[in-house]
Amino acid sequence: MIARVTLDLTLGKEFDYLIPPEFEEDVKVGTRVKIPFANRSVLGSVTALAESSPHKKLRSILKIIGRQTLLTPKVLQLARWIADYYCCPLEIALKSVLPDAVRKDQKGWRERLFARMLPVQAALPNLTKRQQEVWKIVTEWKEIPLQKLLELADTTAGTVRRLEDAGLLTITSEISERDPYANEVILPSQALSLNADQTQTLARIIERMDLPQAATGTSPASTFLLHGVTGSGKTEIYLQAIAHALEQGKGAIVLVPEISLTPQTVEHFKARFNSGPLKTLVAVLHSHLSAGERHDEWHKIRQGRARIVIGARSAVFAPVDPLGLLIVDEEHEHSYKQEEAPRYHARDVAVMRGQSEGAVVVLGSATPSLESFYNARKSKYTLLEMRVRADDKKMPMVRVVDMRNEARRGKGIPIFSQILRDAIASRLEKKEQVMLFLNRRGYASSLQCPKCGYVAGCPNCSIALTYHRQIEKLCCHICGHNDNAPTVCPEPACRNPAIRYAGLGTQRVEETLAKLFPRAHVARMDSDALKRKDDFRRILGDFRLGKIDILLGTQMIAKGLHFPNVTLVGIIYADLSLHMPDFRAGERTFQLLTQVSGRSGRGDVEGEVIVQSFTPFHAAIQYARRHDFVGFYEQELEFREQLKYPPVSRAAMLTIRGRNEDKVRLSAEHLKRELEKELADWKDLILAGPAPSPLLKAETFYRYQIMLRTRQMAKLSQRLAKLLELLKFPEDIRLTVDIDPVNSF
């Protein structure tokens, strides 16, 4: 027998190897193997089996890695689709499917020694005082890690071994799984009663789940778009739909867009499924786990012990089998798109996996992406709508403050309008909580000299450096470069001491809050403030307990958080994402404002939202003020149709990069000529560029872009892959292909 193997090397093809007789029963599609390659041995995955090979003098497989097939045929099929659609080699796709901690040829399990009490058949033998202390601890614990026993008894292993010789206990070696939530105490929860919208929505999902698998798997309409306003109870729908999947003997995957959202999501699901008739392990997969934790969580899933998986985008590949339900929460979030190869979108991979495995897919959001809502309107997805909040709570009242008027009233532009300042004071007086949102970290967005015009810029990127006051540094948020903050203008001919810091970030807002409301407890949540692994959960826990009055943060506080005592949300600068050079700028602004607004008024007191803006009458802001998603969608779609932008087409972004700008520009022009020649017969193709990237230089590389738009992206991907194989560029020039990009940077 012949095994076709994809190596863990980026070579773009598969290789044939002989299967030795002793391995024939164990080598299957998906098996990890060690094979000889050139003058060394490497690892790879068996991606096909064959009776013969066109090649002569085949070498043999050296070793099988692991006792279990790591890749199921269905997940391998998904990896092939990713490689084809996203224009990348299969081995790159497989690296996303299998975590490093699982792929590598090393002992992944951690073993520990346990002391376990044995039934005592007769009177206890004479024990020394030290042995009596050890025995007392063992009888209390029944089973205890040996290392823990030695610490508690302040003794040696020899003492414990003598108790084993006396037949009082046994010492065994067991696999000790690393559980990232092992120390959490989570109380069980029961299913909640549903309102009319929730009941109807759940019934539609369960009805589809009950269809025979063949019928489900062949129907794209097995994908639901659940459009529910913020606070409408989508999580409870997810929980009860998963319970139905478990009753069917199937598993479920739940994707969340931010790793920071994972802990609270895990708590919801563990509370529901840690006990009772549907008890199962809940596995967690995301990049902040240690390699050992990822290894153990993945194997819990592969062995069928964990039938529910929660995680960020890579969890879409979790080896749940059989898979009954795939949920993508906050499906509109751009973090579901991977920035490095393979540049897949987890939402679209989830839809494809659901179709191939006969699983129902639920895409949930209060602000669906235009692509998903467009697909629902075209009947590719089934649209489910929940228009009211659970328990009939009112949507918060949204007020928009024109900051141009505020600037005219005083000297300069204030951080807080008088309206927002008064509202914060009023809520604090009533012992209610406030959330403030500004999607820019740091203290000031730039350092400027008003005399000569100098602006401190990053030497590696075409961007101004952000001032961080706590560390007195100017930092680049693209490449990480930092400089000491100067006290005078760095220009030799100027040396003006009156330099100033322009713009604002969360650190400056935090400082201003401390001056305006000195008695309030303020906490800041951004990537600078969260240094330790548990900082996010600690701050949210304190906020939930009322220890924090004002929570200030970036986009990590914009979604998925539920605090009943929050009655005011203030959006400091709503225009920040509105004027970006990206055709999705309006959509992103609408989504962000709506999601942040949804944190207010989730308890018994009606909520309020105050939005500060210099363009208060922009459509995105006004539709968000009215909580009118459909109105925004129809207006935005009209703009997209005029310019043939997604969702009415699909896009591919080709980026040429290198350290010499002239060489990058010439290479991009050469690429355009080749594309025009090779794709001349493509009737609906729109080719734009080449043009400098909106961020021309990033991490020392200059970048030029070409955008292709068509309705037939799957076919275009195939043509592009063949064309790019033949194109030759200078050694110091790199080309990347991003299918369905989510930003223009």
Tertiary shape: globular
- Tell me the span between the first and last alpha carbons: 48 Å
Number of strands: 30
Query: Which structural class is indicated by helix and strand composition?
Result: alpha/beta
What does this structure look like?
The two termini are 48 Å apart. Helices cover 32% and strands 23% of the residues. Strand 3 and strand 4 (40-50) form a beta hairpin. The strands form seven sheets. A seven-stranded parallel β-sheet has the order 11-12-10-13-14-9-15, with helices on both faces. Strands 16-26-25-17-24-23 form a six-stranded parallel β-sheet, sandwiched between helices. A five-stranded antiparallel β-sheet has the order 2-1-4-3-5, with no helix packed on it. It is built from 22 helices and 30 strands.
List keywords for this structure.
745 residues; alpha/beta; GIY-YIG endonuclease; Rossmann fold; 6 domains; 7-stranded parallel beta sheet; 22 helices; 32% helix; globular
Topology:
Elements (H helix, E strand, L loop, with lengths): L1 E6 L7 E4 L13 E6 L2 E11 L12 E3 L7 H13 L4 H8 L2 H4 L7 E7 L11 H13 L1 E3 H8 L3 H9 L3 E7 L20 H14 L3 H5 L5 E6 L5 H14 L3 E5 L6 H12 L7 E5 L5 H12 L3 E6 L11 E7 L16 H12 L2 E6 L4 H8 L4 E5 L10 E6 H7 L8 H12 L3 E5 L8 E3 L17 E3 L4 E3 L6 E3 L15 E3 L3 H11 L5 E4 L9 H10 L5 E4 L12 E6 L13 H13 L10 E6 L5 H7 L3 H15 L6 E9 L2 H18 L7 E13 L2 E10 L2 H14 L7 E6 L6
Parallel strand pairs: 9-14, 9-15, 10-12, 10-13, 11-12, 13-14, 16-26, 17-24, 17-25, 23-24, 25-26
Antiparallel strand pairs: 1-2, 1-4, 3-4, 3-5, 6-7, 6-8, 18-22, 19-20, 20-21, 27-29, 27-30, 28-29
